[in-house]
Specification:
CATH superfamily: Ribonuclease H-like superfamily/Ribonuclease H
Oligomer: single chain
Radius of gyration: 18 Å
Largest sheet: 7 strands, mixed
CATH class: Alpha Beta
Number of helices: 5
Distance between the termini: 33 Å
CATH topology: Nucleotidyltransferase, domain 5
Shape: globular
Order of helices and strands: HEEEEHEHEHHE
Helix content: 25-40%
Strand content: 15-25%
Number of strands: 7
């Protein structure tokens, strides 16, 4: 595993700041990340399914109808997960649009909080020197009147971000499915439960975002 000289110090900071958030009843901590893009079509995903008749699928992904970008927001307090599907590239605007939509839908559940703490990794669209991402986050902070703190995991260690466990569970759950439509992908996502090897994922909300 790759390691930089600052890795241990970064992990100490992540633990300290996450713990401070968890102990503060006015602070809400979430974990965010995007999953690998998903091609929509009659494509074999290399998994297994329990069906009486074998499913027929293309073994080469030369043709597909769409490509989805799954983006997840995991509430580390309640273990609720919201998943948004985008049909564009993974961009800073797409991610902040999803965060904005999530807050607008859920803000009334958190009337007492004054701070939003976000666990994330330094991906291309969310790294700290991505000016568009930081600009949009500052704008979001002002519009929702909340202090926002970004807690970055060390480079090459994004697997420790809590939401990664949910992505692993989703991949195991639908790898035997044929995702031949956007609705099929949404339905499979919405039907996954915490009993399928994902202790964090208790509630799913699956939405389709067409924003860039």
């Amino acid at each position: 595993m790759k390691k930089i000289p600052q890795t241990d110090a970064i992990f100490e900071n992540v633990f300290r700041e996450n713990q401070a958030s968890d102990e503060n009843h006015k602070s809400l901590r979430v974990s965010i990340d995007t999953k690998a893009k998903v091609k929509i079509g009659n494509l074999s995903r290399g998994g297994k399914a329990r069906t009486l008749e074998p499913k027929q699928a293309d073994d080469h992904d030369t043709e597909w109808q769409a490509v989805l970008v799954p983006f997840g927001i995991l509430n580390t307090h309640s273990d609720q997960l919201s998943i948004y599907f985008g049909q564009s590239a993974e961009t800073s605007d797409f991610i902040v649009d999803c965060l904005t939509s999530w807050w607008n839908e859920n803000q009334y559940d958190y009337p007492e909080i004054n701070e939003l703490v976000i666990d994330l990794d330094g991906g291309a669209a969310t790294r700290s020197n991505r000016t568009q991402f930081i600009k949009r986050m500052v704008e979001l902070s002002g519009s929702i009147n909340l202090k926002i703190r970004l807690i970055y995991y060390p480079p090459y260690h994004s697997k420790y971000n809590p939401i990664e466990r949910c992505w692993a569970a989703l991949e195991n759950y639908w790898n035997g499915a044929i995702l031949d439509s956007v609705d099929a992908a949404r339905n499979w996502t919405a039907n996954m439960t915490s009993e399928r090897n994902c202790t964090y994922c208790l509630l799913y909300r699956s939405n389709l975002s067409n924003r860039n």
